[in-house]
Amino acid sequence: MASTPNRSTPPPFDPSVPGLAARHVAREAVATLLGPARGLALEDALAQAARGARLEPGEAALARAIATASFRRLGFIQAALAARLRDGLPENRPHLLALLVTGAAQILDLAVADHAAVDLSVRLAKADPQLQHLAPLVNAVLRRIVRERDAIRAEETDPLAHNTPDWLARRWRAAYGEAAARAIAAAHLEGAAVDLTLARDPEIWAERLGGVRLDLGSVRLVEAREAVADLPGYAEGVWWVQDAAAALPVRLLAPESGERVADLCAAPGGKTAQIAAAGAAVTAIDRSAARLERLGRNLERLGLTAEVLTTDALALPEDTPFDAVLLDAPCSATGTLRRHPDVAWTKSETDVFRLVGLQRRLLDKAARLTRPGGRLVYCTCSLEPEEGSGQIADFLNRHPDFERIAITPDRVAGHAELIDPSGDLRTLPSHLAGGTGRAGGLDGFFASLLRRKD
Ligand SMILES: C[S@@+](CC[C@H](N)C(=O)[O-])C[C@H]1O[C@@H](n2cnc3c(N)ncnc32)[C@H](O)[C@@H]1O
């Protein structure tokens, strides 16, 4: 099939057809990420595609669900399509590929009616001047996926081979071994529950919200169906959404009332809120004004305060060092694939190497901002060793004035499996697998607790 020229405007669709707008937005967002704009996050691609589409909240949620399901099983879905297309997958035609992938994702993975998945995909093809001649092909392939669904699902036996890009599968095998790499890939297919951090009365609110109190401290909402903003306690500022693993770095930093704490990469503020809720005087720094606006709104809802600085953390003055410093560094985010499966397909090893350099400079800066005797926690939501244990090994070589405080199991509710051999926190998506499906799992976080010698 010939490639199509880049589009400057999205193809038209009829907004009066129920369900079509959600499919249009999902298809546009997936096409954007499969096309030249690979570096974009799915959230941003969805927001971009939804501009002008006037989606109701339910339609926006459906668009997100379709796009997320498309990336969660992208390798497997593409293989299933390729086996049913005479000429294989369309090359250099992201809109056609995205139409087929989003259609197949609905049929294989989502509880939507088959006829809606097929017919609305065909409608989108017909409305698109560049694809209308291929509408019969879209119809035939998606109907075949419906007919052969059970057989196709039975072929998905190896998530590491099917749904993990080679560069990540290779790295995880090397870092964690074959069995753990397989468990990580399998956990990604389960998705993630909504975890909450509570400012007060976790037992009472866990019950009121119908959630489970995790021994790590968070409350897990396994069955959350409505928008989080409609749940009890949101408006009152009792809790905020934060993966149970993401809440651990601040628990390790253990900020105390009256301490001066710097949160160097703070937005949108989940960890800032924890530090402020502990009674510490927190300075929240981030170079993104837009993300800091979200931090401001979040803190306001929670009734918490912080000094907020919009600046590059590398440019901060070093004259008044802090009692404790948190560096939640920008990273490849490969620990968050349960929620953001697009990351696996839009990032590359080059991103990892580029970020390692920035993390190193931020860590050196964080060290200079920590007072003698003070604590420094470095963390990332990455599974890549260079962004975690490798970064800390290099740091300790460069900084003999710092020492690691090894994390003991009692700091993580007895979960010794969350601690690596050096004494750092190393959570995996396959951890906490006691529950089935969304009841288990954690984001993949690394955290090291360091102390500046007196
Ligand atoms: C992993 S996110 C932080 C998440 C946040 N700590 C939380 O818990 O909600 C990384 C943040 O680092 C910020 N960032 C990246 N480079 C920075 C720099 N040089 N100085 C300050 N902030 C930076 C990004 O804007 C982004 O908001």
UniProtKB/TrEMBL annotation:
Highest taxon above the source species: Bacteria
Any one GO MF annotation of this record: RNA binding
Active-site residues, Swiss-Prot/TrEMBL: C381 (nucleophile)
Any one Gene Ontology BP term: regulation of DNA-templated transcription
Keywords, ordered alphabetically: Methyltransferase, RNA-binding, S-adenosyl-L-methionine, Transferase
Class in the EC hierarchy, top level: transferase
Record domain SAM-dependent MTase RsmB/NOP-type: where: 160-453
CDD domains given in the database record: AdoMet_MTases
EC number: 2.1.1.176
InterPro entries in UniProt: MeTrfase_RsmB-F_NOP2_cat (IPR049560), MeTrfase_RsmB-F_NOP2_dom (IPR001678), NusB-like_sf (IPR035926), NusB_RsmB_TIM44 (IPR006027), RCMT (IPR023267), RsmB/NOL1/NOP2-like_CS (IPR018314), SAM-dependent_MTases_sf (IPR029063)
Binding-site residues, S-adenosyl-L-methionine: C265, A266, A267, P268, G269, G270, K271, D286, D312, D328
Record SUPFAM superfamilies: NusB-like, S-adenosyl-L-methionine-dependent methyltransferases
Record family assignment: Belongs to the class I-like SAM-binding methyltransferase superfamily. RsmB/NOP family.
Name of the protein: 16S rRNA (Cytosine967-C5)-methyltransferase
Organism annotation: Methylorubrum thiocyanatum
